[in-house]
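Onboarding guide, step 5: your first structure request.
Type a short instruction followed by the sequence, for example:

Predict the 3D structure of this protein.
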Amino acid sequence: MRAILEFSLPEDEELFNVACKGRDLWFVWWNFSRFLKEELDNDGERYSDEEVRVLERVRNRFYEISDEYGINGELMS
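The system replies with structure tokens like these:
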């Protein structure tokens, strides 16, 4: 299978840049996802109960927003 994206430049420059940076954006998402998981896995060592609750809220909202755009960890496998 082959997919070809075409852009009319300079009119579509913003869309072109998003398409070109998609892989980088994916790795930003993946690394932040892993960071949140690792921080919460080590919660007893570093954070107060309130800080853990805040991290959990951030993580939950992060995944809610990701789900709204159809982005999840399954894309990585």
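Each response can be followed by summary notes, for example: The chain has a mean pLDDT of 87.
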